[in-house]
């Protein structure tokens, strides 16, 4: 079924669900209508249906928020969440060993998506949050995933204009291609300040079915406190363990 504008019901529902984010977890109906650009009567009707099925909830103050049923459905048979569950014990060991921010991320829709994060007490960096998206070329994890992505994915990404987030963000296509080749060879990336000044990310790939890279494992240090001699072997050991737990023996490093 489509509206008079030609937009399908599913498209409008997707706009409603996408209106919620980490900063705005609940909102009144009028704000939701404004954020989606949908007419208020349409928003009311669709929200009422979504509340009926538990995908959204309406609290005592008439605030609308994401429903528990939506979370329940999203966890059923989701490969990324299964990957997260497999990786967690190895991430915990890595976190305990190094004591720094530890993340697990995947590529999704042309961006980097963080699916797990372990944070030291008092850690001040508000990036790389769970369910947060980040530009691929502005994170060590993103560069690792791009380095092992299919050639057509690389070409599509590298041939478009890239935003420079810091003075260290690499946006030149040739320079990036050389860097990606080096990452594939070393199976490791260290990226000082490419996304946020003052922080250095170190990342390695995780291999899944058919020895394809399915995720990246990373640790983040405040600049000047990096311990690569300790971090690099620990990262490789953890990623090897996760890959083996996924039923895949990673190929040898060149």
UniProtKB/TrEMBL annotation:
Give a Pfam family name. HTH_IclR
Q: What is this protein called?
A: DNA-binding IclR family transcriptional regulator
What Gene3D superfamilies does this protein's entry cite? 3.30.450.40, Winged helix-like DNA-binding domain superfamily/Winged helix DNA-binding domain
Instruction: Spell out the PROSITE patterns in the cross-references.
Output: HTH_ICLR, ICLR_ED
Which terms under GO biological process does the entry name? Answer: negative regulation of DNA-templated transcription
Task: Give the originating organism.
Answer: Gordonia humi
Q: Which domain of life is it from?
A: Bacteria
Q: Which UniProt keywords apply?
A: DNA-binding, Transcription, Transcription regulation
* Domain IclR-ED as annotated: residue spans: 69-248
Extent of the signal sequence: none
Entry annotated with the keyword Metal-binding: no
Known InterPro entries for this protein?
GAF-like_dom_sf, HTH_MetabolicPath_Reg, Tscrpt_reg_IclR_C, Tscrpt_reg_IclR_N, WH-like_DNA-bd_sf, WH_DNA-bd_sf
Q: Does the keyword Transcription apply?
A: yes
Q: Molecular function terms in GO for this entry?
A: DNA binding; DNA-binding transcription factor activity
